Amino acid sequence: MLRFLQAIIIGSLIPFIAILPPIIHFFTGPIGPFIGGFIAGTITKSDPLKAMLLSLGITISVFLYFFIAIVVFGESLSLVPDDFSLGGILITSILFIYILGLSLLGAIIGGYNSQKNK
C-alpha cells in the first residue's frame, strides 16, 4: 500500500516537473500526465484495475496541487474565471478528463511493460 501511495505521489509530481524546463516544456508539458502514469505503473507493476486507481489518484493529486497553489499564490495563478461560470466548469472538466486519460494510458502501458519484463 505504501508503494502504491509513493507511486501516486511520484506520478503526480512529474507533470509539474515536465513543465519547468524553459524551452522544452512546450513538448514535455502536455505529455507529463502520460509520463507520470507510465512511471507509476512501472513502479507498482499495475494491472488495469490498479492503473485506473493510479490514474485517479494522480489526477486528484494534480488538481489538489493546483488548488493549494491558488490558495498560496492568490488569484494570479487561477485558471478559472472569478465567477466560475459554465466556461470555468467546462475548462476544469476538460483538464480533468485529459489528465485522467493520459495518466491511465501511461499506467496501463507501464504496468504491462513491467509485467512483460519479469
Q: How would you characterize the largest beta sheet?
A: none
Counting structural domains, the number is 1
Could you tell me the radius of gyration in angstroms? 15 Å
Number of distinct helices = 5
* Strand segment tally: 0
Mean pLDDT: 78
Which runs of at least 5 residues are low in confidence (pLDDT < 50)? Answer: none
Q: Measure the end-to-end span.
A: 21 Å
Helix content: over 70%
SSE series: HHHHH
Structural category? mainly alpha
Give the amount of beta strand, in percent.
under 5%
Helix/strand layout:
Blueprint: H1 2-19, H2 25-28, H3 32-44, H4 48-73, H5 86-116
Describe this structure as you would to a colleague.
With 118 residues, the protein is mostly helical. It has one domain (2-116). Helices cover 78% and strands 0% of the residues. It is built from five helices and no strands. The chain has helices at residues 2-19, 25-28, 32-44, 48-73, 86-116. Helix 3 (32-44) packs across helix 4. The longest helix is centred in the last third of the chain and has 31 residues, at 86-116. It is globular. The mean pLDDT is 78.
Which key terms come to mind for this protein?
single chain; 118 residues; mainly alpha; 5 helices; globular
